[in-house]
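Key result, reporting period 2: structure in, sequence out.
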């Protein structure tokens, strides 16, 4: 299982260098959080991290699909996921004014998995309908 988790020491080695991300991950555990999700494809995470002395900013794309029940017929509906997001993690003691939501790093590890799970859960629509319903 791929973990999108790094220690600050690992990340600091990439300061002012290219830090690219290209991983396939499993996030099946979101089915426990949202029981309407019937299936989760492996998610393809691509992008980069920008690392400096006060923060780490990830510019990532999440691509895959979820299987959800049709709100009318309960048949499986494939919901494509293709999300671009920027996530900033502030390092200890740094204060950074930004419009974006930021995360304060606790300890010395940055873990992108909880953020990715949260983003995927937010992508689930209130209702989803299958295309081929006879009227």
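The corresponding designed sequence is given below.
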């Amino acid at each position: 299982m791929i973990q999108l988790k790094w220690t600050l020491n690992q990340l600091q080695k990439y300061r002012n260098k290219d830090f690219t991300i290209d991983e396939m991950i499993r996030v099946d555990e979101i089915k426990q959080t949202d029981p309407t999700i019937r299936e989760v494809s492996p998610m393809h995470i691509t992008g980069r991290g920008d690392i400096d002395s006060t923060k780490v900013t990830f510019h990532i794309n999440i691509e895959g699909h979820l299987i959800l029940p049709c709100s009318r017929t309960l048949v499986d509906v494939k919901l494509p996921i293709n999300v671009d997001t920027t996530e900033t993690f502030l390092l200890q003691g740094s204060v950074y004014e930004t419009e974006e939501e930021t995360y304060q790093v606790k300890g010395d590890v940055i873990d992108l998995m909880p953020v990715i799970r949260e983003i995927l859960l937010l992508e689930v629509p209130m209702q989803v309908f299958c295309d081929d319903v006879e009227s």
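The first helix runs from residue 8 to 12. The beta strands are 5-7, 20-25, 39-40, 43-51, 55-69, 76-90, 102-104, 109-111. This case is discussed further under Risks and Mitigation.
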